[in-house]
Amino acid sequence: MTDDIVEPVAPQPAQPNTTQRMPHISQPPGDEFQLGERAVFEHRGVDYTVHLIDDDNWVIRSADGRTMGSIYIISLAGEEGEPVYGVREPGSLDTYSEGTDWRGIAAAVINEVLDEPSPEND
Fold this sequence. Notes:
Blueprint: E1 38-43, E2 46-54, E3 57-62, E4 67-75, E5 84-88, E6 97-99, H1 102-115
Antiparallel strand pairs: 1-2, 2-3, 3-4, 4-5, 5-6
């Protein structure tokens, strides 16, 4: 019978984390975006773009370029430690909705804009 000899292994220095940090599932991908870049998300069977316009502000546009609203950061860490976003209707300074799920609040403002009566139907 032979004895297996196990040589001790010297500890290796920690390797730097080279993986790209992924945003929270509900966070617009601002960390991976450069100003002017866009992401696409689908709502009601239509693609909309979320366009980063400055550090913490995104504009939501339809495929034909119509502005549907804007998303901005209210707090980087809300009650549960997640970013809190606000969304505004086009041309408004008032917050229409807020929450941690940017897709949900973006969908809410899109619904509001799409469901507004058109001027010719007044």
